[in-house]
Amino acid sequence: MSDKNTLNKIFSGPVTFLKSAPDLKFLPDGNVMEIAFAGRSNVGKSSLINALVNRNGLARASNTPGRTQELNFFDVGSPILFRICDMPGYGFAKAPVATVQKWRHLVNDYLRGRQKLKRTFVLIDARHGFKDVDRDFMKMLDDAAISYRIVITKADKIKNSELVKISEEVQAELRKHSAAYPEISITSAEKKGGIDELRAFILETIET
């Protein structure tokens, strides 16, 4: 595991927005290692990415769930060490059926076909736990044999006893999913809780 100074230097260094890809033909060249973040709309994905790279507004959250339907890419490091893919949120109730289908095709094709994708992180809101849409997304990853790790977000929003309970529920659910990484990350973007641990795991992942 890298020391805290090394992690801060890497994740607080140069980070730049590369591009948005509304379709596979707009994907950036797959010439560097990538990690991807997925989760329900309003799960705190943008806040977590911003906390990881020590920025306030790099990844922007939409006020309208389901509005962002593009893959957003960010380059970390100079020269580039790895790339972050911020995936559009799922589980939005008000989006048209055609929009949902387009999202599913875009995300599924990206995840299945991206050779440089090292790990997908699936975010779960500590206040709500797993929803059926989370399980559906995880099944899609299982079926495609795409390795992923669960990240619990907004851990500061609930009591410690509730956090222990939700963590146990998440661990129990993971045993039902073949592609899930056995360990989970517990984070708070606002309080920076678990951020260094997640940074260390990301760095370890891209180096192996």
UniProtKB/TrEMBL annotation:
Keywords: Cell cycle, Cell division, GTP-binding, Magnesium, Metal-binding, Nucleotide-binding, Septation. Its cofactor is Mg(2+). It holds the Pfam family MMR_HSR1. Residues 31-208 form the EngB-type G domain. GO terms for cellular component: cytosol. PROSITE patterns: G_ENGB. One of its GO terms (biological process) is division septum assembly. The keyword Isomerase does not apply. GO terms for molecular function: GTP binding; metal ion binding. Gene3D superfamilies: P-loop containing nucleotide triphosphate hydrolases. InterPro entries: G_ENGB_dom, GTP-bd, GTP-bd_ribosome_bio_YsxC, P-loop_NTPase. It comes from the Bacteria. Necessary for normal cell division and for the maintenance of normal septation. Belongs to the TRAFAC class TrmE-Era-EngA-EngB-Septin-like GTPase superfamily. EngB GTPase family. NCBIfam families: GTPase_YsxC. This is Probable GTP-binding protein EngB. The gene is engB.
